[in-house]
Amino acid sequence: CDNCLKYETYTRLNDKSRLFNAFINSSTNVNKLT
User: Fold this and answer.
1) Tens digit of pLDDT for each residue in 4-32?
2) For the chain, which terminal residue's Cβ has fewer other Cβ atoms within 10 angstroms, N or C?
3) Residue 24 has what pLDDT?
4) d(CA 9, CA 2)
5) First to last CA, the chain
6) DSSP annotation of 1
7) Which residue has the higher pLDDT, 33 or 20?
């Protein structure tokens, strides 16, 4: 089904962006510490 595929890609993108945000946050935190 088309919607299922859209939902899957959407959740995958969501996970990627969440990981990316976590990465950005951790790197900015490191910058604050140094």
Assistant:
1) 888 888 889 889 999 898 888 888 877 77
2) C
3) 86
4) 11
5) 50
6) -
7) 20
Q: Which two tokens stand for residue 31?
A: 């910058």
Take residue 4 and report the two structure tokens written for it: 């299922």
Helix (H) or strand (E) holding 20: helix 2-33
DSSP secondary structure code for residue 34 in this structure: -
Q: What is the predicted pLDDT for the residue at 3?
A: 81
What is the rounded CA–CA span in Å between residue 15 and residue 33? 27
